[in-house]
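does this look right to u?? uridine-5'-diphosphate-glucuronic acid version
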Amino acid sequence: MRLTVIGTGYVGAVHAACMADIGHQVLGVDIDPARIAALTAGRTPFYEPGLAGMIKRTVDAGRLRFTTSTAEAARFATTHFVCVGTPPRPGSDAADLRHVEAAVTGLAAHLPAGPDGTVLVGKSTVPVGTAQRLADRLGTAADVAWNPEFLREGRAVQDTTRPERIVAGVPTARAEARLREVYAPLTAVGTPFIVTDPTTAELVKLASNSFLATKVSFINAMAEICDATGADVLTLAEAMGADPRIGPGSLNPGLGFGGSCLPKDIRAFAARAEELGLGESVAFLRQIDEINTRQRRRTAELAERLVGGSFAGRRVAVLGASFKPGSDDVRDSPALAVAEAVRVRGAQVRVHDPEAADNARAAHPALQFAPDVTKTCDRADVVLHLTEWPQYRELDPAALARVVRTPVIVDARHTLDPKAWRAAGWHLCAPGRPRLG
Ligand code: UGA
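got this back:
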């Protein structure tokens, strides 16, 4: 089957490669010539396990090509996936649909006037009602379907080739048949295929991300209660998660959620609901957001208390800069927000990250970076473990105790072994686990 993928950012690059990998002929389209040249040469502009190899393999096999020409895309196929970004509008929480509009208008200009079986499939996360608006605009030129993506950074290839479900929001039988054909290799091995209308499909994505964010903020709110009462949030989360109605996923307490999706999606969803006069229905999302940003503030304040009440003349070592391990993405990274807050309050901050240091340096030029953990922790008054890279679990606490000025560490992600660190002479604090402190 021939299809195009318009937009070769995170979602688009992964979708294009995975669709080629399952056997389709795919043309990836982007307005950025540098990006197209890089992808053609098998280079991905971000770190994602398995993706570069998959692109190279499918390009070499002749199933994946890239272009900057929308006219070529319109000639190449009658199935087009729109995978462009929907960042927040400047100065607002609402989603900016400029890229979606540009992609659709650009393609529409090259479509034949009458119906030719074109199906436009949106994958971008958009405000409810967007598909309908685009359909009204395109008229008979194309069916507009919505097929949200649910991939997680760091597991994007796996999430796309072996998804938990495929949601096909289709306006016509033709669009449904087309999406069934696209995903036949996945449904053949048992992936559930949920057919609905485009509006419901748009909402599935927003509701799912809102629910995940709610779980994370819920357990972090419980961590605050634990801190005040002496209870232990890790045991609490484990016991709650054992109930299959609750489940253990997204119930890890810590510094909260960041990245390019959850924070922006819940804000855009709340803004859209307010626009529809339904702000009250999802008012809790504003609180979820507030609980989330509060964790960053609380961690910075905890660090300040631990160095004696003032950061003046203090050195703070930060372990982790990406918004989560397994990714070099620093967008809305909780770790960097804390590092920056601590720096602004007067500390000298040094940051380490195994993959995201370059991106972090570009986004936060005032922070200092060190190439390894030892240099990062050199003469530190407090160490903040903020992104749970697996290699930090393997650190030797005794060796690190000899490097720092004061052996005090905040394990904001709960992945260090408190016994081992305390045995090596460290004072280890973990939010929501007051009895450790
Ligand atoms: C998220 C969703 O998980 C995907 O299903 C969705 O497709 C994607 O957004 C998207 O909209 O494109 P992602 O941002 O890659 O994916 O990351 P998650 O693994 O969900 O983590 C999000 C943030 O929450 C991270 O900062 C992570 O550290 C934090 N988190 C996650 C917790 O603090 N606790 C948890 O238990 C889980």
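The chain has 19 helices and 14 strands. idk if thats expected tbh
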